[in-house]
Design a protein that fits this description.
single chain, mainly beta, 12-stranded antiparallel β-sheet, 4-stranded antiparallel β-sheet, 3 helices, 19 strands
Length: 304
């Protein structure tokens, strides 16, 4: 269990890899912003918060699928689809009630049956982009790089129950490594597993709703986007006191959870939560232009 926690922390460190060139990208983005995009907008009110718990030691599933979100659709063919052939379950994301400690403002669950599993996907092209997104904490200017995870609607129950089918009214989301401003907001979170206070730190993922195409014995099945304006920004949080399922200190604790989604059905062990994904609205985005190389030609001195 200790090794799994270390693995989770290392993943978060990898998320922050794009941070070092942030300043120049932000300056460029602010200089190229469109006037019409400055119109004030609010985060979506029909999407839940999700608190994501690490799941250790999962096998890689070899399932070919195609994904296309707004970033992909702007690319020329054939780069306008991302090809996924490996999926590794990394987290279960519960709907969660959030209370901001400083103000006491409550963001209750909207759809308690909505849950998402987070699958790590095989490596995708690194295409730097800058995204402006607003959530309930702040307006973030995010440096976004490659796609890392696919969020999949999932039915979930604490063992020994049988997992229900996934909710059909919840989108898939493709999540990109991202970095932005640290928020340092203390919150109280309450979901099916725990009730406790943590501090929300900095953004590490930005998630677009995504079209998914999966081939099957009867042809391809396309899962369209239902709510194109709903996005998620996932923030790291301070360590949780949640002991996990099963709880190593309590022999009478539940043995874990049972999940059901389009890719798998089965029992899973749950460790500490490390990400809070909050409803977000994407105000604008743009690719970061490649640097133009500059060359200098030295003047030749005539030989004497």
């Amino acid at each position: 269990m200790r090794d799994s926690n270390v693995q989770s922390e290392r993943e978060l460190i990898l998320f922050l890899a794009p941070r070092k060139d942030r300043t120049m990208k932000r300056i460029w983005f602010l200089l190229t912003v469109l006037v019409g995009s400055a119109i004030a907008q609010n985060p979506p009110v029909d999407l839940d918060h999700f608190w994501c718990y690490f799941i250790p030691n999962q096998p890689t599933l070899n399932i070919p699928i195609l994904l296309q979100d707004q970033f992909d659709a702007a690319m020329p063919p054939p780069q306008n689809w991302e090809h996924i052939n490996q999926l590794t379950l990394a987290r279960i994301c519960n709907t969660v009630d959030k209370i901001v400690t400083s103000s006491g403002k409550d963001f209750p669950m909207i759809n308690p049956s909505h849950h998402l599993t987070m699958y790590q996907i095989n490596p995708q092209p690194v295409i730097p982009r800058v995204v402006t997104a607003i959530d309930q904490f702040t307006t973030q200017i995010l440096d976004v790089s490659d796609a890392r995870f696919l969020l999949v609607p999932t039915g979930k129950v604490i063992l020994p129950g049988s997992a229900p089918s996934p909710s059909p009214d919840l989108d898939h989301y493709k999540c990109y490594a991202a970095c932005g401003s640290r928020v340092n907001v203390p919150v109280i979170l309450h979901d099916q597993f725990t009730l406790e206070g943590v501090t929300v730190l900095w953004p590490v993922l930005f998630c677009n709703p995504v079209v998914k195409v999966r081939s099957g014995p009867n042809g391809s099945v396309t899962t369209p986007i239902q709510k194109p304006n709903d996005h998620l920004t996932c923030y790291s949080n301070t360590p949780s006191i949640f002991p996990g399922l099963p709880d190593p200190t309590n022999p009478n604790s539940p043995r874990g959870i049972n999940i059901s989604n389009q890719f798998e059905v089965g029992n899973k062990t749950v460790l500490k939560p490390d990400l809070l994904c909050v409803p977000s609205t994407k105000l604008q985005w743009a690719p970061v232009p490649a640097a133009t190389p500059t060359t200098t030609t030295a003047s030749q001195t005539p030989k004497k």
